[in-house]
Write a structure and sequence with these properties.
Cofactor: pyridoxal 5'-phosphate
Helix content: 40-55%
CATH topology of one domain: Rossmann fold
Protein name: THNS1 protein
Radius of gyration: 28 Å
Number of helices: 34
InterPro entries: P-loop_NTPase (IPR027417), Ser/Thr_deHydtase_PyrdxlP-BS (IPR000634), Shikimate/glucono_kinase (IPR031322), Shikimate_kinase/TSH1 (IPR000623), Thr_synth_N (IPR029144), Thr_synth_N_sf (IPR037158), Thr_synthase-like (IPR004450), TrpB-like_PALP_sf (IPR036052)
Shape: globular
Strand order of the largest sheet: 10-11-21-16-17-20
Oligomer: single chain
Family: Belongs to the threonine synthase family.
Strand content: 5-15%
GO biological process, one term: amino acid biosynthetic process
CATH class of one domain: Alpha Beta
Largest sheet: 6 strands, mixed
Length: about 725
């Protein structure tokens, strides 16, 4: 076997073993001694007996970067090609490949890896090592695998200039680009850490990024979460105030009533890193961004990549997942409705169930409770019903909605999305009762304790304040900007404005987070309907609910007066002053209003502008856009379009978030298109809309759901807490026992 043992005399220095000459030398050179100890401690604490294993495509710079990392850590450096394969075979790698051919080469290479062992070293793999499963399993046992993810265009340029002739698999029938794409899943399967190299950068810079990534990997304490209402002094005294990603996904809401936020904020990407993602797919962009936001101790990087691929795969009807479409002039639409339930909520709720399943303990079952007035219900039901069978056996969903308080299409969708672990219950009351009842159930310790003891089942929630609901939304705002660069609309670095129909403030907050992470967003424009409390707040700094009543509009997803995620934004601009945030939201709860200090209002107005749209203007915008472009906006997107027309200064592109497919709001759309008689049957309404041959086409998933649903069964119950609790217990008995 090929062994490398870590032995460096300098690392074994002790006071007893020093000769007087050595001692005098070191005492006379305190700087040199400090450097020796610094080197020993840095390499020993970073590596121990583990290896740093560099993996990536040919041309990623593994050998060069490995040597630099080894020098910085003062540890052995092993290049698998030069030090293992060629030594074992007694011939060059290119000769071996030519002699035995592609398939036999991979097998021989894997055998050599199986016979190799090392500790405390930096190892540079060959580009094809990850294609041999047994060999990689062996080498990974004692190492941290670092994936040097270099854009394909950069790799191809490097290999061309190097005139490389030994790419495994390269033949007349396979292009270099095809081979590089084919290998990506193997790299994703094995990596513990991804170091995204962006555009062509110096090897020294990449080596530093490798060391930083390894340090992050080994110290999950660096990435904790705090409540927006926790004080700085309390955080330093109470260890329990720090939570990890897994904790916040399961808990959702902080115990003190605040919302969880990263203690050290979100990571900042360099311009080069963003530019390296311009050619990437949506899934690849999501992998790079989310791996930097979720610590591998919570969800391993290879598992996260698998989850992302599942979430944004075949269940989205558009291969681009979140395409950007030119509307008119300098306005572009970010289409967020290509998921299975036709709204932007699919982006979080196709991903979150898999994150949740990865975070919860295996020893407990979980029932997710949801109260909805519309789109959230079908998105949650669909998302959790797509879990693996083993996860569906321990995770179920119960969705409560007002039986007579949702549209016929929304009700049909919620009924049609029921599966073996996902159910809808109509409540003979309004949404406020459903939401209040769920909150009371969560705070009923006798009931929740009984469920845990008797059935081994805990309750959890998947509402919009959960951090795992917010995080995936950052990706599509970043991706939209990169798409404009890719399409040649703007060069990277040029600013854009973003206009978003806003109710609970989550979507627009995600855009602001993307800006903090390095996307050149100039202004975030908050678009409200007639429930325009946010517009007034952004303009005046006064959040005032006194005398306001919720108005039912054509854009129900933004029919909200209390914007929950606003709390996260105020915590941010208030320099994480949890006491101030607590004061503001306690005042809102008790007195119905609060007012920002002047300095905070000035900060807010540097980031945000706001406007609102009447019902008449909403319908008029739908009609106008269809008449001039043949494109049908949904009612929420129309609200944003109206506000964008009023507030944009036309000095840069503006991206309007199209948050739902118009098919979901067929009666309002037909009214906007001035159809005199509207059939009340949802399926008939969609067939009528499809006759217009408009863009985009009728949503495939919604149409199929309505066809299957008909008068599908669902449970209906009275507006009584004891009845709801009985339904919950019965479901647990039937599903988990």
């Amino acid at each position: 076997m090929f062994h490398v043992f870590q032995y460096r005399p300098l690392r074994l220095i002790t006071q007893n073993s020093l000769s007087s000459m050595h001692l005098k030398l070191m005492l006379s050179r305190p700087v040199a001694l400090a450097q020796i100890w610094k080197s020993w401690f840095s390499s020993h604490s970073l590596l121990g007996n583990k290896n740093i294993i560099l993996m990536g495509p040919p041309g990623a710079g593994k050998t060069t970067i490995g040597r630099i990392v080894g020098q910085k850590l003062d540890c052995p450096v092993i290049d698998i090609d030069d030090d293992v394969l060629e030594t074992t075979w007694d011939m060059s790698v290119s000769e071996k490949l030519q002699n035995v051919g592609y398939e036999e080469f991979l097998e021989e290479e894997g055998k050599a890896l199986l016979n190799f062992s090392a500790s405390g070293s930096v190892i540079s793999l060959s580009g094809s090592n990850p294609m041999h499963a047994a060999g990689m399993q062996h080498v990974k046992k004692n190492g941290i695998v670092v994936y040097l993810d270099v854009p394909t265009t950069v790799i191809m340029s490097r290999l061309k200039s190097m005139a490389v002739d030994r790419i495994v698999g390269l033949s007349a029938g396979n292009s270099l680009k095809d081979i590089l794409q084919f290998r990506k899943p193997f790299y994703k399967r094995w990596h513990d850490i991804r170091v995204f190299c962006g555009e062509d950068v110096a090897a020294e810079v990449v080596a530093e990024k490798v060391l930083d990534a390894v340090k992050r990997y080994q110290d999950s304490e660096l990435e904790t979460f705090i409540s927006t209402r926790s004080s700085r002094s309390g955080r330093s005294m109470e260890k329990d105030s720090h939570k990890y990603f897994s904790d916040v996904v399961i808990q959702g809401l902080a115990p003190d009533g605040g919302l969880f936020v990263p203690e050290r904020r979100l990571p900042k990407f360099t311009a080069g890193e963003w530019q390296g993602l311009i050619e990437a797919t949506y899934v690849e962009r999501a992998e790079v961004i989310l791996e930097r936001c979720i610590h591998p101790a919570d969800i391993p990087a290879c598992k996260l990549a698998e989850i992302i691929g599942t979430a944004y795969g075949e269940n989205f009807s558009c291969s681009k997942v979140a395409p950007v479409r030119h509307l008119a002039g300098n306005q572009f639409l970010l289409e967020l409705f290509h998921g299975p339930t036709a709204s932007f909520k699919d982006f979080a709720l196709q991903l979150m169930p898999h994150l949740f399943a990865s975070c919860i303990p295996r020893s407990c079952n979980y029932l997710i409770l949801v109260a909805t007035s519309g789109d959230t219900g079908s998105a949650v039901l669909d998302g959790f019903s797509r879990l693996h069978d083993t996860d569906k056996q321990r995770i179920a969903v119960m969705n409560f909605f007002p039986e007579d308080g949702v549209s016929p299409i929304q009700k049909s969708q919620m009924i049609g999305c029921q599966k073996e672990n996902a159910w809808s219950v109509g409540v003979k009351s309004d949404f406020d009762f459903c939401q209040t009842a769920i909150k009371q159930i969560f705070t009923n310790s006798d009931f929740t304790g009984f469920l845990t003891v008797e059935y081994g089942t805990a309750l959890s929630a998947a509402n919009s304040i959960n951090w795992a609901r917010l995080l995936p939304q950052i990706v599509y705002h970043a991706s939209a900007y990169l798409d404009l660069v890719h399409q040649g609309i703007i060069p990277f670095g040029s600013p854009v404005d973003i206009c978003i129909p806003t109710g609970n403030f989550g979507n627009i907050l995600a855009a602001f987070y993307a800006k903090m992470m390095g996307i050149p967003i100039r202004k975030c424009i908050c678009a409200s309907n007639e429930n325009n409390v946010l517009t007034d707040f952004i303009r005046t700094g006064v959040y005032d609910l006194r005398g306001r009543k919720l108005i039912s509009t054509f854009s129900p997803a933004v029919d909200i007066l209390k914007s929950s995620n606003l709390e996260r934004y105020l915590h941010l601009i208030a320099n994480e002053d949890g006491q101030l945030v607590t004061q503001l939201f306690n005042q809102l709860e008790n007195q119905g209003h609060f007012q920002l200090r002047k300095d905070l209002l000035e900060k807010l107005q540097q980031d945000l502008v706001a406007g609102w749209c009447s019902e008449e203007d909403c319908l008029a915008a739908i009609h106008s856009v269809y008449s001039t472009t043949g494109y049908i906006l949904d009612t929420h997107t129309a609200v944003a379009k109206v506000v964008a027309d009023r507030l944009q200064d036309r000095t840069c592109p503006i991206i309007i978030s199209s948050t739902a497919h118009y098919s979901k709001f067929a009666p309002a759309i037909l009214r906007a298109l001035r159809i005199a008689e509207i059939n009340q049957n949802p399926l008939s309404q969609l067939h009528l809309l499809s006759s217009y041959s408009a863009l985009p086409p009728i949503h495939w998933g919604l149409l199929e759901t309505l066809k299957k649903t008909g008068n599908g069964d669902h449970q209906v119950c009275a507006a009584d807490m004891s009845v709801l609790m009985h339904h919950i217990e019965t479901l647990i008995q039937n599903h988990f026992m």
